[in-house]
Amino acid sequence: MRVLFVCLGNICRSPTAEGVFRRELEVAGLAHRVEIDSCGIGDWHVGKAPDTRAAAAARRRGIDLSELRARQLAAEDFSRFDYLLAMDHDNLAALRQQCPDGCGAHIGLFLDFAGEVDRPVPDPYYGGEQGFEEVLDLIEAASRGLVEEIAQRLEELRH
C-alpha cells in the first residue's frame, strides 16, 4: 500500500502529514506494509527541508521531519501510489487535472479520513505558531482514520 500527501509547496502541510502518518503506522504495527511520501504541486521549494515552524511544531509532538526534502508531483505518482491525498481544494483540483485516464488511485481530500468531509487543511505558512498546531491536530485525526481504512484494506487483501 502506498500513500502520497500533496500540498502546494511540500514544506508545511504534506511533510507534516508524512511524519504524523508514519508515526501512526508505527503505533498500529503497519509501518513495514505501507510506503509514504509527500510532494508539492509547485516546484518553488524542491530539495528544501520542511519549514522551520512546521518542523518545530512536529518536534514538540515527538515527530522528526528533518530528513524530509520537498519534491514536486510527478506523472508517475499516479501509477505508483494507491492514495493521493490533497490538503486543500486547489491541490485536489490540480491532482484531478493532472490525473491520467484509467488511474485507479484514490484521489481526495486528506481530512475526509477525519470525518471532516470537504474540509481543507488550512495553510499555516503566512500565519502564526497556532496555525501549525491546528494543522497538527487535524492531521493527527485524519491519520488515525486513514490507518483504520488501510488496516482494513490490508486485512481484506490477506483473505
Largest sheet: 4 strands, parallel
H/E element order: EHEHHEHEH
Give the CA-based shape.
globular
Structural class: alpha/beta
How would you write the strand order of the largest sheet?
A: 2-1-3-4
Q: Total number of helical segments?
A: 5
Per DSSP E runs of 2 or more residues, the count of β-strands stands at 4
- What is the total domain count? 1
Second-tier CATH architecture: 3-Layer(aba) Sandwich
Radius of gyration: 15 Å
The termini sit apart by: 16 Å
**Into which percentage range does the β-strand content fall?**
5-15%
> What is the CATH topology?
Rossmann fold
CATH class: Alpha Beta
Helical proportion? 40-55%
What is the CATH homologous superfamily assignment?
A: Response regulator
Q: Report the mean per-residue pLDDT as an integer.
A: 96
Regions with pLDDT < 50 over 5+ consecutive residues?
A: none
Task: Explain what you see.
This is protein-tyrosine-phosphatase. Keywords: Hydrolase, Protein phosphatase. The chain is an alpha/beta fold. The chain has a single domain, classed as Rossmann fold (3-Layer(aba) Sandwich), CATH 3.40.50. 43% of the residues lie in helices and 13% in strands. It contains 5 helices and 4 strands. Strands 2-1-3-4 form a 4-stranded parallel beta sheet. Helix 4 links the parallel strand 3 (83-86) and strand 4. The model has no long low-confidence stretch (mean pLDDT 96).
